[in-house]
Sequence to fold (342 residues):
Amino acid sequence: MKNYAFEWKKNVNFKQLSYDDFVSKFFNIPNTFFLEKVDGLLGTLVYREGKKPFFQLSGGGVIADLPVLYEYEIHLKKLKIKEAILAGELVGRKFGTVLPFNQTQSIVRTAYRRLEYRDLVHHYIVDVCSLNGKKFNFPQSINFMSKNFGRMGLPRIHIPRIAYGNIDTFRKLYDIVRDKPGFDGVVARDIKGNNYKVKFTGTVDLVVIGAGHIDMKAWKKNQVSYLLTSFIDGEGLFRTSSKAGTGFTLKERAALFNYIKDSTIYKKDGEFFVKPKLVIEVKFFRYRMTSTPTYKFAKGRYDLIGSKKSVTLSHPGFERIRTDKKPDRYSCRMEQIPDWGN
Fold:
């Protein structure tokens, strides 16, 4: 089955910018749509009349049989829609507040077997991929979302706050979102197809290729010291980035130590290398274009093929594990960096 969530994410291809970069680069921005960025799991609703609706995750897998899906089924039937593909964010929400991402991730992924979580799963629609087989552009999506889901009083289906205007409109929405739990920035989308995420801190998704160092104090306490991270380019090569050694809780350090210990395929110079399976989100303050060691992974080993242009991060810190993402050339792409290719 086609992965609609992944295809939507790939086609929209958000560029991530800091607040200062966005304001300075787009000070004279023409009228643009701005949306609150919900900090959830990307889940696309797949609805076809006569069949049970479900959410499709960008990293693979589906989520079905939840109250929010029954809500969609009833509402879309009232609208006389026979087929709908709606991109959105799955979140955990309680007492009207979107929960932090780590709680959202646990709630969404275990709701199928934990009854107390089922009612907590909500969906924020952020785009309409197609209706009755017809593709929508973004202005059409906004119109449909606002008319058919905004202020409808649907308990578990929502649309984010939407504003249309210039850089002053962006600033106002950004200030509102900063104080709103469960939201981590603003999305900017113009009619020309340019799409940006403006987050409170810069983050990138990187694949973990190893960890170290065996002689460091944390490692001797059965805690990970730092993670070796990498981007994946269009050829599937691993262009290394910075070591992430801060931001972990003690529990996370211990869990990641066990992951590395159980997944090690070989050791080299005091560092442990693992198969590229785990994706993490890494936060940073600034970045720098530079050449770094680049590897090809084959037959259980990383073979150094030389140095290629990559990105290193200033003060890289572990943010969280992204179980909703796969270590592929899209999720861990170089193009997460706005200046890449310029």
About this structure: The chain has two domains: 4-199, 202-336. Residues 202-336 form a domain with the OB fold (Dihydrolipoamide Acetyltransferase, E2P) fold (CATH 2.40.50.140).
